[in-house]
Amino acid sequence: MARFYKKSWTHFFQAIKAGQKLHDVREDEGYQIGDVIVLQEYDNINGRYTGEEQEVEVSYIANRTVPCAFSSAVLSPGYCILSLKVLA
Q1: Model pTM greater than 0.85?
Q2: Which of 33, 41, 76, 83 could be disulfide-bonded to 13 (CB atoms 3.0-4.6 Å)?
């Protein structure tokens, strides 16, 4: 299991933290199910990190190799859709 630290714009960060947004489209960095991503809230309006973090676990991955619905047709090469589980 790997651990990644990733920037997350405020409106996405808050929706994930609240459990409303349970997926994220990211560049495929070799994520695997069970990896933990530490999302770091980034205020894209003011151009700074807020200091808030939220851990999420990758629970499923869809990409061009492992398609989900239309992902193989619409995802650009090198990108994936991560299903996320919010960790306490």
Answers
A1: yes
A2: 41
